[in-house]
Amino acid sequence: MSDKPRLLYLITHAQTIQDRSSDATQWSLSPLGKQQAVELAAASFWSSVDTIVLSTEAKTLATVDVVLRSRSLPLRRDAHFDELRRGREWVGDYVARGDRGFQPADARRGWMGSGSRRTEPLLPRYRSTAQGR
């Protein structure tokens, strides 16, 4: 094993088209999500990446497709990274439910500081991203 430290980049899939008629695991990228994927592919950190590990879902592969077309990187699919099973009810009130995840009373203990001063500045950006703005 190498003594060289390894970095782990955790990247969420790009924005998707929320489709109430299908499970979230089947959603495709929105036009903004496709642009986000292009911007992600242009990031400078890819030169230090030696393997891409992603979920088995199409939206994660679509997110790194531009990278894979421009770089010869090994790809591993791992179901442990698949979407949380939250059902279709998340579509209509996705932003409201997401907002609750940032509130101390509803946040998982320790997640994002459970509403700490570090997460509060993220809420406006989260809302804009979730609403496709």
What would you say this structure looks like, in words?
With 133 residues, the protein is mostly helical. It folds into two domains: 1-86, Phosphoglycerate mutase-like (Rossmann fold, 3-Layer(aba) Sandwich), CATH 3.40.50.1240; 93-133, no CATH class. Helix content is 31%, strand content 5%. It is built from four helices and two strands; from the N terminus they run H-E-H-E-H-H. The chain has helices at 31-41, 58-70, 94-101, 122-130, and strands at residues 52-54, 75-77. The protein has a two-stranded parallel ribbon with strand order 1-2. Helix 1 (31-41) packs parallel to helix 2 (58-70) and helix 3 runs antiparallel to helix 4. The protein is globular. Mean pLDDT is 77; it is low at 110-115.
Quick description:
With 133 residues, the protein is mostly helical.
Radius of gyration: 16 Å
CATH architect. name of the largest domain: 3-Layer(aba) Sandwich
CATH class category name of the largest domain: Alpha Beta
Level of helix content? 25-40%
Shape: globular
- Give the biggest beta sheet: 2 strands, parallel
What's the CATH H-level homologous superfamily of the largest domain? Phosphoglycerate mutase-like
Structural domain count: 2
